Batch of 2 targets.
Target 1
Amino acid sequence: DAKTTQPPSMDCAEGRAANLPCNHSTISGNEYVYWYRQIHSQGPQYIIHGLKNNETNEMASLIITEDRKSSTLILPHATLRDTAVYYCIVRVAHAPGGGNKLTFGTGTQLKVEL
Amino acid sequence: DAGVTQSPTHLIKTRGQHVTLRCSPISGHKSVSWYQQVLGQGPQFIFQYYEKEERGRGNFPDRFSARQFPNYSSELNVNALLLGDSALYLCASSFVGTLQETQYFGPGTRLLVL
């Protein structure tokens, strides 16, 4: 699976948009981009994923560049409860049930402040 | 709907003992994966099981084993515990049927080895 690079930490003011970048310059055509977050001492929470089109759900938006070498997770109106470590993961789409492991890096610690 | 559940939530063991951790997947999910997260690092993949068969294994010693039951719940066993096995053990379940196969995590079991 492709390696990802994320900034170790970011700050964001409450109510503002949080834009978390991820570089995955070696991504291949059959690799999805996944985002998870982990609030202190809890299990990782799935946020969103995409292949090449931009995606939006009730939690966030995912913007993937046209060359797919980088992506940005956008939390449109960050709150204090969004303070967490955010992980960007690229994963090969194996056959169903065929060893679809997630390879986590160290992620970005997002701190949302008043 | 109930999410992934894990038991116990916390556990203290001594070196050399063995431990069994349990996981119940989301209803309808037939695949279960196990991850280990030591303090300050991202989760590391241990195993994936689908239809009671091992479908993937991470770089962990043979002291680590797992199995999946007919109801798709799973157990992770660790023998001859070492101090370095102290970690948060995470279980994730996924619905197998598409290439995307998003994994959803439980709250984890925190193991302390003394």
Note: Chain A has a mean pLDDT of 92.
Target 2
Amino acid sequence: ELKVEQNPLFLSMQEGKNYTIYCNYSTTSDRLYWYRQDPGKSLESLFVLLSNGAVKQEGRLMASLDTKARLSTLHITAAVHDLSATYFCAVDGGLIFGTGTRLQVFP
Amino acid sequence: NAGVTQTPKFRVLKTGQSMTLLCAQDMNHEYMYWYRQDPGMGLRLIHYSVGEGTTAKGEVPDGYNVSRLKKQNFLLGLESAAPSQTSVYFCATGIVNSPLHFGNGTRLTVT
């Protein structure tokens, strides 16, 4: 059974701190996507990772992909309140999503 | 340029009633998807389509049917609604190796 597991499921962090969200998957897919969802809203794309070793950065977020370990990470640098949202990873073009990581950033 | 439009936005059904959710896109994307989102469970794929006239089952297809008669439209039907189908439904479209574009969702309550 194809699985995509994220951890942690919930993350409460102080502004200015760093943290990493992990996405483990069981398929041999080499395509992985990260999305953000604000409460009550739809999902918006953050990153598309299409090959082993791919690294993408946007502002305080950086995503990477290790297809051999079947692991993607989303690293948050110097968190700010505006990053509070739920983050999802997805594999196989969107066929399977992780359960999401709800991030809360407090002062 | 509306992108991905879902109708209706909200709906309340009684158990056993039927309804159809419409997803319309003007992005000329080949792939279209229907998901449901429940608290603590992320998004689960119901059905998807890789082109006009084709559909396939996702992770949780039971109780739902779909049709893709035109490239721009993907319909999700509930023939006999059950309380377990209370959820938020999202439609998404995409092309190979590109991120999905999501609609704004339909909040469905079945009483």
Note: Chain A is about 0% helix and 55% strand.
